[in-house]
Structures are given as C-alpha cells and as structure tokens.
Backbone:
C-alpha cells in the first residue's frame, strides 16, 4: 500500500506557474508526483438535465483559496510522502483576492466568477403580506445587526480513504456519511458503471455534515491508485482539515421588526449576507433557511438572502446549516423586541405562536412547541427578572430562552432488505452508515420488534454500496430515522407475514390467526399451536424467506418540522468576560423516541456544539493573504468536558407523529439550532448588555460591559 | 467481486506492482519501510498490555505510530498529532500520556497499556461496560483515549467526584460532546453502582 499526501495552495487566488519536483523525486520511496499537468483528465460530467457541469479538476493549477489542492505525492511511507511534498518548489502567479464578504461587492472587487461575485446575480427574496403596512401598524419598531462566524466541523476522524482498483472495480474504504451518495458522485464524475464502484464505510468518526459528498481527495486517491497499480491511502492531517475540509459559512444579518404594544408581531424583515467561498462546488448554500418565515406568526414578512463569493473555502452543510445562523440571530432579535415591549421573552414567544405552517398554510403533522415552552419553563423554574439584577461578587447570573424550527421530509426513496436465517435469526441489509447517532441500533430495534424476535437475533449489514440497497444517499438533515425506519418496518413486516404464511400452511390455520412474540410463533386462538421461529425457519431449509421494504409515500396535506425550546442559565465573570453555561433544560418534540438514550445523546451533544458556536468557535484569518491563523485544535476552541453544563436536562415534549409508520421525526440538528439564542439571551440577562456578534467571546462581553482596558 | 479487506491492504496483501512512475529499487517487500528512511534504527523494548515487545524503530517515530502500525493495535487513534485532543491517550507506567507526543524510544523499558489492554478476554473493564450502559460513545472516535484517561484517573482516585472526573478528561476532546453520558458512566464506576 502506498501513502498519498496532498499539497495545497499557499495563496488565495491565482495560478500555479510551475512545480519543480526534482528534489522531491529523489526522496527514497517516492513513487508518483501528481501535478496539474499530469493529473488524468476527467470525463465530461453532465447534470441529470443533460447540461455539462464545469468543475475544477481535483488537482488543478487555478487557485481559489489558501488550501486548494494543487499537487499530491505518493510514496511507500507517509513520512517519505510528507518529506517529498515539502521539497516541491512551487511558483505561483498571484492575483488580487477577495477575502471578506464586505469586500466582495465593493466596486473594483475582482470578479471571482464570470457572473460576478453575487451568487445568482441578485438576492433571493421571500415576501408575504405588505411590509410597509406592517411597519405602519407597528407601535414599537426595532432594527439590529448580528453576525455569526465560521464554524469548523472538526470531526475527530479526519477525511481519509484507501483506494484500490482490482479487476476493473474501484473500491474506496472511506470515512463518509453515506456510501451511496459518494458512490453516486464517483460514478457521475468518473464515468464508471455503478457496478464497478464500491464505497465501504460502516462507522464514521464524526461528520456533522462535512462528509456527505465526494471531495477532491476521493479522486486524487483513485487516480493515484490507478496510476501506480497499488492501493493508496490518503489521510488528511488536522491542519488540512481546517483549511480545506469546508465549514459553516460566516454570515451577516440585519433584522428589522415591529410589534404592537401587547407584543404582537406586525412585520419582520431579515437580510442575510452569507460568505459562499470561491465557487459552489460543495455549497449547501451560505444563507437563508426559512426560519424567519416560519418560527412565529407574522402576517408581513420579507427576507432577502445574498450569497457572495470570496477567495475562501466554500461552505458545506454543518448540523443545522443556515438554520443555526438564522435562528441564533432571530432569537436574539425577538428577545430584544420582547424587552422593548416590556414583556417576558417566553410570554412574547407564546403570544406570537404559529399554529400552522406560515408559508404554506398547512397544519403540521405534529407540533409540540407549546409543550416544549411550558414543560421546559416548568422544569427550569423560569421566572423572568430584570437584566443585570443577579450578582454574586464579580459573577453575574442570567437566564435565557431560545427556540427552533427545523427540518421536513418530503418523499425520498428508501429500500431495505430483511431476510430470515435458517435458525430464526434475521439479517437486515440497509445502505446507511452510522455517523454516531446510533441509527444502527434504532433500525435493529424496529426490525426486531416487527419480526417479534430479540435484539440480539437481528444483525444490520450496512455501509457498503455494492452489498446494500439504496436506503439513503447520506445521513444529514435529521431525517435518517424517519426515512429509513419505515422501510425497515415494511421489510420486516413482509418477512414476518411470509414466515407466518409458512407456519399457517403447515398447521392448516389462517395466517391472520398467528403472531410472533419473543421468537415464538403461536396462534391467538389455539394455545397448542406454537413453535419457536427457529423451527419453522429450519424446516424451510435453504428456501430462504426474505423481503424487500420500501419507504411509503409522504403524508399529503401536512407540513413536517421539528421544534425545540431551550432554557439556559449562565454565569458571566464581569472581570474576565468569560461565560459559563451552568445549566440547560432542552425540551424537544420529535415524535416517538425509539431509543431514549440515543435521543438524549443527540440533544446534549447538539446543545454543546451550539454552545461552541455561540461562545467559542471561530476562524481567525489574515485578511491580507487569506490564511487561517488558528488552524489547529489548541487555538480553535472545541468545547471540552469542563465547558459542558454540569446540569443538563432533556425533556420529551412531543407525541407520536402520524406522518410515517414509526411515528418518529428528527433530532440530530434542532438541539444545536436552539442553543445559541438561549445562551445569548442569558448573557444579556446576566450583564444587561447585548453581544450581537457570535461567538460571544470574553473581549466582546467586556466591551459590552464598557470595561475593556487599553493595554 | 474481488476479496479485499482494508486490514489486508495495511498488511501489504492485495498490492500489484505495475506501471509505477518511479520504479521501486531494492525495496524489501518483507519490511514496508524504504531504505535510507530517516536515521539508523534503534532497538526499543517495552511491554504493551502485558506482552513484551522488542522493536527496531527509527528515532523519529512516535509511540502512537508504532502502536498502530507495527503492533497493529489500532484502537488508539491519531487525530491531531499535536497533543491537543487526547484521542491518542495510552498509559505509560500507569500515567495517561498523549502517545502522539512521545517518541517510541521514550517508552523504552516502560509498560504501555492501550484500550485493548483494558478488557480481560471477553470480560469488559467496568468503564467499558459503563460506556455501553450510559451510551457514552456517539461516533466513538474519542472513546479509546477517553476510557484510558478515565482509567488512569480512577486508578489514582477511585472515588472521584463528577467535578474531578471532568477535570481529568479536560484534555480529551469529544466533538460529538457526549460529555454528560461520559461523566455519568465514569461516576457510576467511581461510586461502584
């Protein structure tokens, strides 16, 4: 096996003029150096509509951001590859770059695409009602600006793969969130038949949205393996994870809104500018997610979303993409409106409660947000008090509330296979990967319950694009359980029917009379008719009983979304500006909790990631040359065990959802999305001053307190 | 379909030398390291999970690399390679250390315990059992280092409190943020419940 190290651009914009590999070549063990001039050309790629898709080659000479792939070294050892990579002499032709979103639209800014720097050439606008009428009806009006910064996924397992070609089949052992998604992209870009690409990945050491798609490293590894005729391992080191694995976009927000004196919203205007990087190669978009349109009842709403190109990494989805940014800002703004009107922020939210989907007018399949507010408030002991009123020496204590709406699921195909083994155990085959959510356990539970046998008697085979059916493209969007779960249930139900039909025939009874429970088939009416499933299966010999299940159609006439309300208490040190989250109560509604331990893990984990985004995490970048300054885990602050709240309560405020056959909704993302507003509002309550720029770092807190010392 | 396993690839099986750009000259297939790689090797002896090992390693190789690549104990993870995340935590003479930040040669004469050394046959260490019961692992990548760090902490302070437990794993990052369940699991072991 060979080892591949990717070489990345040090400039933000321009071209690679030359690469001199003479010294690198002489490093013992070097087998191949890939450059823009010898990287194999990729076949022409076409969209599903038949249009040619233009993409930068995985290794190319045009450079769009610091970190862009420009070469690769393949050697017998990783150390040799690294050594050789450092010996490459690279000459650039540097062009003026645009680093900050504010600079992107200034006159004279270099155009980064043929169509300029504004994605789509104009803002994306949503409007309902009459904003001007809403403004004139308002008795109190407020306008504020907020911002969020880049958040890096930083999964502990980096992006990495082993690529091997054997007998015309490309196999990739990879770290990704969906083997079928990555396989689909490889097939499209490499022009290979689907039966000649195999992506293998069962368990993932974290993804959070960064590993949903194919990325340049897949193609570099595949090319290196093809050209050397040997398996190639490509491992991304932590610095490259920071500078090239993509991230949550930076965003700038302007909110303007008005209420009547009783707190009823009359209008909301939300302008967002999202930083979209140099192209839309991987972008899930950089801004705008429909939260302002949906979270509250408001007849007059306008949102404008602009996404601008800069010479930085283009963003990729990160747990609650766009929704987290939008909600963190909207929930602070709503809090400010509440204070302007002199109303308890919780009461304000309840007064503007949206019963039905504000955009489509449809009722929700289930909406337990009111219960989230009420049960969360009760468990927390919510009693609103004036900001800055609770002090303990230098510490200031504050409470805050924040809410979230996220997700929906229209129809998506999902196919699962369930087969009885000859001894009455069962195998479920599904094309999913477990990214840490425990979906493997959830699907086994569903199958076991439906089949009537024990958990230990069911095995889930997953994560191999050639050996599993298409159950999902990739795990994102808080939807894996509600998409794949019903398909598992359908397949298991069919398998159960089939084996009951076999038993019914043998016993000369109606199949409807029989049930399976605790691995025993028995008749409802005749207690003498009973036998272990094992015996019935074994009697079939090698006539295996197997079934295929599909995900059913979407429920018509309803909107589906997940809701949450978080209540947080913080302590702010007025001397240092440090914010500690003391306790949190997270009330969620997400349909049936199929596995309560796993749901609790998602809520607690998502909250802490949201806390990271709200208080600690940001990219520090040199504006002159577009280089990241804190590209390591010591100076990019991922929350530690000492940052997580010591008291963290989770509440199930939902009810079984009728829109699918397992009555579940989604839980992966809402906990992150609801956290930030609650924390920021608690900080305001603690110190009586608002920090509108996330992350709420100590310097900003001290600034807000008006006590920054000049050093 | 060709029978290829990732473990097989790491051992060198399944590689077909053909059409190399820079032909391998004098490369011994038996040993994966290229000639002239780094400085002269030196002999290092240490016990790993109770078993003695004698290895010839280049001085520049870290303990983490040697554990994973030479001894094929891949439970220990390399994530940051800069002693800033704790995923590579092992015990060296009873102390929790970042194995990415130690040269293999520095373990000479010592006794290393990795995550693989915590269970005895099929019997899980109480911490491992507790991690299962409390769902203290989400993606699981920080888990080996986390459990080893907790083992060191509880060995030193068997009745550790929640606060002491949190402090003892302050250097073990969990990006999934499973901290609440991790502390609960460790606390259950400390309390003997």
Residues:
């Amino acid at each position: 096996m060979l080892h591949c190290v990717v070489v990345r651009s040090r400039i933000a914009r321009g071209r690679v003029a030359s690469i001199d590999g003479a010294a690198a070549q002489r490093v013992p063990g070097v087998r191949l150096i890939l450059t823009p001039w010898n990287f194999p050309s990729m076949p022409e790629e076409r969209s599903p509509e038949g249009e040619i898709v233009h993409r930068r080659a995985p290794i190319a000479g045009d450079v769009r951001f610091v970190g862009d792939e420009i070469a690769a070294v393949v050697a017998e050892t990783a150390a040799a590859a690294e050594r050789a990579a450092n010996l490459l002499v690279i000459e650039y032709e540097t062009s003026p770059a645009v680093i900050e979103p504010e600079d992107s639209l200034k006159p004279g800014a270099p155009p980064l695409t043929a169509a300029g720097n504004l994605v789509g050439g104009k803002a994306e606008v949503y409007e309902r009602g009459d904003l001007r009428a809403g403004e004139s009806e308002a008795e109190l009006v407020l306008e504020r600006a907020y911002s969020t910064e880049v958040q890096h996924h930083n999964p502990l397992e980096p992006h990495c793969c082993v690529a091997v070609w054997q007998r015309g089949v490309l196999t990739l052992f990879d770290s990704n969130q969906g083997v079928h998604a990555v396989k689909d992209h490889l097939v499209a870009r490499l022009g290979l038949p689907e039966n000649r690409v195999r992506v293998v990945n069962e368990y993932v050491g974290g993804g959070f949205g960064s590993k949903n798609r194919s990325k340049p490293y897949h193609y570099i590894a595949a090319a290196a393996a093809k050209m050397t005729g040997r398996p190639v391992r490509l491992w991304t080191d932590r610095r490259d994870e920071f500078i090239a694995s993509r991230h949550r976009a930076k965003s700038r927000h302007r909110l303007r809104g008005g209420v009547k004196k009783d707190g009823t919203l009359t209008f909301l205007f939300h302008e967002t500018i999202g930083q979209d990087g140099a192209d839309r190669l991987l972008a899930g978009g950089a801004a705008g997610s429909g939260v302002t349109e949906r979270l509250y009842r408001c007849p007059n709403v306008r949102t404008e979303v602009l996404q601008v190109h800069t010479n930085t990494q283009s963003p990729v989805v990160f747990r609650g993409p766009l929704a987290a940014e939008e909600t963190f800002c909207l929930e602070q703004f709503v809090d400010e409106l509440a204070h302007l009107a002199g109303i308890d922020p919780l009461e304000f939210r309840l007064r503007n409660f949206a019963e039905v989907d504000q955009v489509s007018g449809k009722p929700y399949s289930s909406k337990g947000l009111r219960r989230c507010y009420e049960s969360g408030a009760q468990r927390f002991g919510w009693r609103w008090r004036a900001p800055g009123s609770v002090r303990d020496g230098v510490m200031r204590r504050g409470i805050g509330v924040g809410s979230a709406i996220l997700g929906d699921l229209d129809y998506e195909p999902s196919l699962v296979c369930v087969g009885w083994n000859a001894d009455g155990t069962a195998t479920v085959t599904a094309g999913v990967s477990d990214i840490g959510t425990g979906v493997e356990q959830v699907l086994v539970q569903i199958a076991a319950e439906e089949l009537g046998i024990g958990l230990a008697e069911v095995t889930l085979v997953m994560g191999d694009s050639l050996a599993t059916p298409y159950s999902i493209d990739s795990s994102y969007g808080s939807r894996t359980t509600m998409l794949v779960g019903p398909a598992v249930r359908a397949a298991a139900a069919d398998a159960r029917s089939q084996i009951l039909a076999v038993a019914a025939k043998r016993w000369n009874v109606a199949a409807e009379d029989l049930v399976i429970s605790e691995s025993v088939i028995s008749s409802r009416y005749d207690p003498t008719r009973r036998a272990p499933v094992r015996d019935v299966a074994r009697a079939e010999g090698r006539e295996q009983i197997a079934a295929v299940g599909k995900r059913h159609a979407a429920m018509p006439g309803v909107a589906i979304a997940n809701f949450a309300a978080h209540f947080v208490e913080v302590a702010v040190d007025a001397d240092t500006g440090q914010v500690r989250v003391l306790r949190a109560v997270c009330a969620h509604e997400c349909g049936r909790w199929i596995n309560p331990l796993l749901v609790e893990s998602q809520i607690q984990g998502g909250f802490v990631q949201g806390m990271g985004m709200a208080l600690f995490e940001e990219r520090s970048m040199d504006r002159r040359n577009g280089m990241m300054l804190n590209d390591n885990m010591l100076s990019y602050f991922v929350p530690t065990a000492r940052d997580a709240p010591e008291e963290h309560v989770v509440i199930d405020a939902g009810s079984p959802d009728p829109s699918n056959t397992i009555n579940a909704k989604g839980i992966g993302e809402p906990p992150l999305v609801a956290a930030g507003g609650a924390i920021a509002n608690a900080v305001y309550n603690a110190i009586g001053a608002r920090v509108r720029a996330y992350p709420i770092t100590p310097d900003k807190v001290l600034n807000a307190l008006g006590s920054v010392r000049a050093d | 379909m060709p029978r290829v396993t990732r473990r097989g690839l790491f051992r060198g099986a399944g590689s077909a030398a053909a059409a190399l750009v820079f032909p391998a000259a004098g490369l011994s297939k038996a040993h994966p390291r290229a000639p002239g790689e780094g400085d002269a090797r030196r002999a290092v002896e240490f016990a790993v999970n109770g078993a003695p090992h004698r290895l010839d390693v280049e001085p520049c190789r870290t303990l983490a690399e040697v554990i994973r690549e030479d001894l094929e104990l891949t439970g220990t993870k390399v994530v940051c390679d800069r002693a800033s995340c704790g995923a590579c935590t092992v015990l060296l003479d009873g102390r929790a250390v970042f194995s990415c930040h130690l040269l293999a040669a520095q373990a000479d004469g010592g006794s290393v315990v990795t995550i693989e050394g915590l269970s005895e046959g099929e019997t899980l260490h109480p911490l491992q059992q507790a991690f299962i019961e409390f769902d203290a692992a989400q993606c699981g990548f920080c888990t080996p280092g986390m459990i080893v760090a907790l083992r060191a902490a509880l060995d030193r302070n068997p009745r550790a409190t929640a606060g002491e437990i949190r402090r003892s794993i302050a250097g073990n990052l969990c990006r999934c943020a499973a901290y609440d369940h991790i502390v609960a699991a460790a606390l259950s072991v400390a309390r003997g419940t």
Summary: The radius of gyration of chain A is 28 Å. Chain A touches chain B through 69 residues (CB under 8 Å).
